[in-house]
């Protein structure tokens, strides 16, 4: 279980981070249903961490995406982990061994700047290294889905600021969605102030609430 000393927080749910990903980020974004199309599907994530969300998303994509579809997964990460640490953390889940093996084989020794990795035919990872707000300010193409997965709002409030949520909204297609385990009042208010329709749902593993929502189509 990786732990951040900088933010005094675990990287994911201590009961089962892979199942949490499915409950919060995939279901919160109404996936895999929304990627049943031929047009490229673009997912963005705040906080790559161990790559667990990427691997579980890719696993579900492999089993459900239509033939000829493509997935572009972009993750914004200030402190990229080392290959050995990623491999060790993800080894906990045999369900994603295929994805873990390929990711760690292709992971650079010293990630910096924009890292582009072709994981499989039709599946591409972009890792953007640096502070999230600055990195998002340089992006122009919007995304279909967002995984908002920074450390806990109480420990890392900058990752949930009004400015950052406004940048996320700007980079969301009309009808695009977000999902997050966070349910703090200021996070919900910042997402709503940015323009999202925000929905509360039951959280994972006994957590009372999580948030998801949509950028209105019109």
Automatic annotation (TrEMBL):
UniProt-listed GO biological process terms: methylation
Annotated GO MF terms: oxidoreductase activity, acting on the CH-NH group of donors; tRNA (5-methylaminomethyl-2-thiouridylate)(34)-methyltransferase activity
Protein keywords: Methyltransferase, Transferase
Domain MnmC-like methyltransferase, residue spans: 95-215
Highest rank taxon of the organism: Bacteria
InterPro entries associated with the record: MnmC-like_methylTransf, SAM-dependent_MTases_sf, tRNA_MNMC2
Transferase is among the record's keywords: yes
SUPFAM superfamilies reported for this sequence: S-adenosyl-L-methionine-dependent methyltransferases
Name of the protein in its database record: tRNA U34 5-methylaminomethyl-2-thiouridine-forming methyltransferase MnmC
Lineage: Bacteria, Pseudomonadati, Pseudomonadota, Alphaproteobacteria, Hyphomicrobiales
